[in-house]
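tool=predict chain=A
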Amino acid sequence: HIWLNSIVLSLRPLAVLMAALLLALAASALAVARAVQLPSVHSGSTLSERVRNEAKWSVHLGDRVYYTPPVSMLELSQESSSYYYTMGSEEALTSEMKAHRVGGEGRMHILHLPKGPSMLQIPRSGDRRAAFSSLVQLQHGAVQTSSAFPAYVHSQSTQDASDEVGALEAEGAKSITSEVFRDFLSRFVAIGANGMTTRSYSNAEASKVAEDFLLSEFTKMGLTACLHEFTGPGNKLSNIVGYLPGAGTGSLTVGAHYDSRPFDAKAPGAEDNGSGVAAMLSVAHAFTSAKVKPQKTVYFVAFAAEEPGLIGSAAFVSALEGSGWAIPTKCQPSASFLQGRSKLPTRVDENTAIILDEVGWVTPKFKNQTINFEATDLPGTISMMDHMLSVNTLLNAKPLEVVHNNAPFGSDHMSFLNRGMPAVLVINGDDDAYPNYHKSTDTIENVNMDYATKVTKIVFGGAIRTAGIQA
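tool=predict ok
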């Protein structure tokens, strides 16, 4: 047996070597598969025009023009219908998505899916750097000229505000100042429990402090304040609602999530999303200061648990539909459309939303201060964006640059859009570049108060015009 053991022992290194070699070959093959990319030329090169004219199909994405692969590239399909576009952070790409990614730039990704979208599961309900927009089939001639979003242009289909609405906008805007915004933000980001600054959804004590703060602020404004309670992952959670009743059917939600990250460390969350909450509170304060009496019911809502997957906003949308965890009776219209009586909306799109997320940081990459309106291009969302664009020039002495992403993803607006309710996300123009995202260094020093105040005025005016006023 001694000689047999010697042979076995001598073969072990060879087996280990062979296994390592096989693993290396497999890894190499995978790397080659992932390295396959659609052919492309620089959009500014002399070849780009020739490609557009002669290729079976081409698309202009970022600084590149991608076109039909040669037949020698057996791994790739010749048909444009085999390729899909999605928007989302590069760091959120799953290994499966990377294996299908054949082109793109920054947050724009081209995926090769010859058997259709069912080939791939993409994250849809995560936060801003963990989710992606819906897959859109590539169309010949499509153009997305840079990784920055294009300027938003007024649709010309939205009517100007009446003199009465204009007077209310001017009156309410007087109460929206950088000092008011700073006061809301500084007190909010100081919230925590047991000696640690945080609003993590998983910290019940800190969440309770945040709830009490928001209930108190809404009550001081003269709004009816409610806790919209529901069961989340691991514990009971609450959206905080400030209710302003309307005279007609439908609703407008002005919302911002109040939870912060990191989950288990110091999490002041000043930009994400203390800035959104401070803006939402400032809008609510302006409504009550100007004594606005809206036609639609207006809900000012601080959503719980956006960070683990848009949980609070999803619960609130279910309540608007009349299912799930109901909004408390005192925060419903007296003839509640939520209870199926006389004010039941005839269409789901009578419920609309403007969502505020990360509205305080100014990127150094852009020449001008920029805000992004993110939504699908449908009549209800276009109307809201048109209103806000108009207000930008009326209420801001130096208007912000306004850009538009029509491939929405990764924030609470998705809970509304996914249920057919028009919703627009208002977010800083370069959110993917914010260096303190989900870090303990996301502190108030990173928030530009003047910029955030301009954003708040835009949302305030857009909210009045969307909700309408009573005759």
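The two ends are 101 Å apart (CA to CA). The first helix runs from residue 2 to 35.
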